[in-house]
Amino acid sequence: MAQRVAVSDGANKKVSRVRVVVRLRPYMGTHDEKDEGSCVRGLDSKNLEIINMRNATETVKYSFDVFHGEQTTQQEVFLSVKPILPHILTGQNASVFAYGPTGAGKTHTMMGSSNQPGVIPRAVREVFKMVNAKNEVEGWDYSISMSYLEIYNEKVLDLLSPGSQDLQIREDKDKNILIPGLTHTTITSFSDFDKLFVPASLNRTTASTKINQRSSRSHAVLLLKVVRTQHASPHRQQTGKLYLIDLAGSEDNRRTGNQGIRLKESGAINLSLFTLSKVVDSLNSSTAVRVPYRDSKLTRLLQDSLGGSAHSVMITNIAPEYKFYFDTFGALNFASKSKLIVNKPFICETVAVPALPVKRARDGQEAGRFGT
Ligand code: ADP
Ligand code: MG
Fold first, then answer.
1. Most Cβ neighbours (<10 Å): which of 26, 28, 106, 192?
2. Which helix (H) or strand (E) holds 170?
3. With contact defined as beta carbons under 8 Å apart, do 104 and 319 qualify?
4. Are 217 and 251 in contact (CB under 8 A)?
5. Distances, alpha carbon 123 to alpha carbons 32, 111, 127, 272, in Å
6. Which ligand 1 atom is nearest residue 28's CA?
7. Contact of 299 with 275, CB cutoff 8 Å
8. pTM over 0.95, yes/no
9. Cα gap 174→2, rounded to integer Å
10. How far is residue 367 from each of residues 9, 27, 76, measured CA to CA in Å?
11. What is the spatial distance between Cα 226 and Cα 241, in angstroms, rounded to a whole number?
12. Of 22, 23, 25, which is best to mutate to test ligand 1, by the most ligand atoms within 8 angstroms of its C-beta?
């Protein structure tokens, strides 16, 4: 008999917050043709500040659960995700997603490269490690499987079965979300995973002629499922799901205004991303509001794995160059409910310059390219 840890909508149920981690990628000269330097800098392990373009005497300071600066390693980023992993071995659900504008480091963070593997390969290795350590000891058999899909234009496409049609998302009587027809393959080692994941990821980015457009507008969703079955009677069975998601670029969905994030509602370029931001907002707001899971494919899929009793981490990737200023501002406003205008110039020497903020940080000291 299958038994799940409850993921119910009980009226008095405590809904879990989404933990928000921000990662600032290193400055890249290639994104800074005007040689303007950086417009964002970290302050400590929770706080960062961004220059206020509308008033150069001010910066806007933001706080997060964790802030990872430019020097952060892939392993350090993984450590902010690692604590949620044990839950999927006990029938609970979890999700990790990378949010932020195209070019800010989402794919680097989630997938990484063979030299610098990201959160996904590290999490898969860790899950195998935990399962191997547990096997036999506690009287449960574990089985791990994977699915890999893409949500593009509100269509659910199976990346392990290229060429397949749009798949439907369903809910069973226990409120578990499932996708009938989606490939799910049992894997018994990290190398099983790698053999499927690497070519499927390549499929995703090369299948389209408009490579960048497509990969920046689709959500790549890896699902790892851990089923454990008790040896002894009553042979209880528990299923835990882990979603690891490289989201579409957040810049597609934003009309920048003076208060930052303003999502286009009509004909949303990316309905799933827009709805995800509303869902995370409702989960993290202190007042009880309806969580609009059903309004998009991505959030419908995540309904049993985001909020409720599920464990979630959102990694917001941002870039330091001025070129990304409005996208960064938007991403930060989405990621943080708290911000503070700090009446302190970014670079003292340039405060008096009323024009556009060119050459702001250029002459600053080397550390982080900011003068103080
Ligand atoms: P996104 O997926 O958000 O569009 P990418 O992950 O493709 O962004 O990153 C854009 C570029 O920046 C890539 O060349 C990537 O290798 C590089 N990059 C991103 N984050 C880092 C980082 N933390 N350290 C070094 N290079 C990075
Ligand atoms: Mg990418």
1. 106
2. strand 170-171
3. yes
4. no
5. 33, 11, 6, 24
6. 12
7. yes
8. no
9. 10
10. 49, 12, 21
11. 6
12. 25
Contacts of 363 (CB under 8 A, 6+ apart): 349, 371
Q: Which atom of ligand 1 is nearest to the CA of 216?
A: 4
Q: Cβ of 195: how many Cβ atoms within 10 Å?
A: 12
Contact indicator for 98, 244 with CB cutoff of 8 Å: no
Report whether pLDDT(253) > 50.
no
DSSP annotation of 85:
G
Tell me the DSSP string of 245-293: EEPPPGGGGB--BTTB--B--TT-TTHHHHHHHHHHHHHHSSS-----G
Residue 119 to residue 154: CA distance in whole angstroms: 25
* Cα 117 → chain centroid: 16
- Per-residue pLDDT band at 89 (split at 50, 70, 90): very high
User: Token pair of 3, please?
Assistant: 């038994």
CA distances from 306 to 13, 154, 177, 314, 360 (A): 14, 19, 12, 10, 41
What pLDDT shows up at residue 284? Answer: 84
Taking CB atoms and a 6 Å cutoff, what residues make up the pocket around ligand 1?
25-26, 100, 102-108, 317
CA separation for the pair 345, 308 (Å, rounded): 42
Of all residues in the chain, what percent carry a pLDDT higher than 70? 77
The phi and psi torsions of 276 (rounded to 5 degrees) equal: -55, -40
Residue 305 to residue 298: CA distance in whole angstroms:
11
Could you tell me the CA-to-CA distances from 97 to 123, 157, 244 in Å, in that order? 13, 18, 6
Backbone angles phi, psi at 367, to 5 degrees: -55, 110
Whether the CB-CB separation of 126 and 82 falls below 8 Å is answered with yes
Instruction: Determine the residue type at 27.
Output: Y
- From CA 1, how far away is CA 136, in angstroms rounded? 21
Tell me the two tokens of residue 1: 């008999």
Question: What are the DSSP calls for 279-345, one per residue?
Answer: HHHHHHSSS-----GGGSHHHHHTTTTSSTT-EEEEEEEE--BGGGHHHHHHHHHHH-S-EEEE-S-
- CA 98 to ligand 1: nearest atom: 3
Residue 346 has phi, psi (to 5 degrees) of -65, -55
- Residue whose CA is at the smallest distance from ligand 1 atom 10: 103
Distance 3 CA to ligand 1 centre (A): 41
